[in-house]
TrEMBL record:
HAMAP family for the chain: PurK
Keyword Ligase annotated: yes
Name of this chain's protein: N5-carboxyaminoimidazole ribonucleotide synthase
EC number per UniProt: 6.3.4.18
Taxonomic placement: Bacteria, Pseudomonadati, Pseudomonadota, Alphaproteobacteria, Acetobacterales
Pathway named in the protein's UniProt entry: Purine metabolism; IMP biosynthesis via de novo pathway; 5-amino-1-(5-phospho-D-ribosyl)imidazole-4-carboxylate from 5-amino-1-(5-phospho-D-ribosyl)imidazole (N5-CAIR route): step 1/2
Assembly notes: Homodimer.
InterPro entries (UniProt xref): ATP-grasp, ATP-grasp_carboxylate-amine, ATP_grasp_subdomain_1, PreATP-grasp_dom_sf, PurK, PurT/PurK_preATP-grasp
ATP-grasp domain: residues covered: 119-305
GO biological process terms, semicolon-separated: 'de novo' IMP biosynthetic process
Enzyme class, UniProt record, top EC level: ligase
């Protein structure tokens, strides 16, 4: 394993250094292929020996993402660790950080994988977002309904994606059903946003603090799943610049190293409200693969290895 000074070092990794990728899916595969173009090797931690990323990597450790023996074996064969999705153990990332740098960090993962932690972070750092309330019991649910008004959206705090793990509350009678159906608790209640469109910005930040953004994209969904991204987003230049500035602010406040997808709503008054973050390459950034000389996967690998 190539020696690495410390997680805070700005020294770039050398040729043939090994990037550990937690997760063996399509995003891990495309990250591994980007790493190969840049002269790095990759090692995948996955439960599936035939996973997409494992098919193109130099090494594979088979095991669960919270299996301490698998984590130990994986960490001893890599120089830096990153991940391809959020549904993994942040504690496991902390364990891996004892061996080598983890980029993005387990701290960022914890924020991004829990909606309450995420919204608390936004609120504490002055990031604009839709009104929200934590729901821990029936009393707080009714208090949220009173404060937000109907309709509003009730969501799980974890493991919700592509429209899953949420329910729209249109009538008081919906409250009990949604509270009993959505699990685990606590939940989060979000005010409805009368938005004109959804925008997303892929922002990348290096070890030395250098930050770069791709142009914002405009996302269109079908049945709660991303169907089309228009890039650059057909919005006024001032809106585009504001969206990028928000993404940069979040990346800096998180002390990000790597790439981050920032989703936000543009409402009919021209205000931007941040919805959620994803500290990894994102489906809404796939357009960069065909439209940009350096795409989101290249940028992510460059950032986590200390390249410019």
């Amino acid at each position: 394993m190539t020696p690495f000074p410390s997680s805070s070092s700005s020294a770039p990794l050398g040729p043939n250094a090994v990037i550990g990728i937690v997760g063996g899916g399509q995003l891990g595969r495309m990250s591994a292929m980007a790493a190969a173009k840049l002269g790095f090797r990759t090692h995948i931690l996955t439960k599936d020996p035939n996973s997409p990323a494992a098919q193109v990597s130099h090494g594979v450790t088979l095991g669960a993402y919270d299996d301490l023996k698998a984590l130990d074996a994986f960490a001893r064969g890599v120089d830096v660790v990153t991940f391809e999705f959020e549904n993994i153990s942040a504690d496991a990332m902390d364990c891996l950080s004892q061996y080598c740098p983890v980029r993005p960090s387990g701290h960022i993962l914890r924020i991004s994988q829990d909606r309450l932690a995420e919204k608390t972070f936004f609120t504490e750092n002055g990031i604009p977002l839709a009104p929200w309330h934590a729901v821990t019991d029936r009393a707080s649910l009714h208090a949220a309904a009173e404060a937000l008004g109907l309709p509003f959206i009730l969501k799980t705090t974890r493991n919700g994606y592509d429209g899953k793990g949420q329910s729209r509350i249109h009538h008081p009678a919906d409250l009990e059903t949604a509270f009993n159906t959505l699990a685990p608790h606590p939940l989060v209640a979000e005010g409805m946003v009368d938005f004109a469109c959804e925008l997303s910005v892929m922002v990348v930040r290096g070890i030395d603090g250098t930050v770069r953004c791709f142009d914002p994209g405009m996302n269109r969904h079908r049945d709660g799943i991303l169907d089309l991204t228009l890039a650059p987003a057909p919005v006024e230049p001032a809106i585009s610049a504001q969206a990028q500035a928000l993404a940069v602010s979040i990346a800096e406040k998180l002390d990000l190293v790597g790439i981050l997808g920032v989703e936000m709503f543009l409402d009919h008054t021209g205000a931007l409200l941040v919805n959620e973050i994803a500290p990894r390459p994102h489906n809404s950034g796939h357009w960069t693969m065909d439209a940009c000389p350096v795409d989101q996967f290249d940028m992510h690998i460059r950032a986590v290895t200390g390249m410019p």
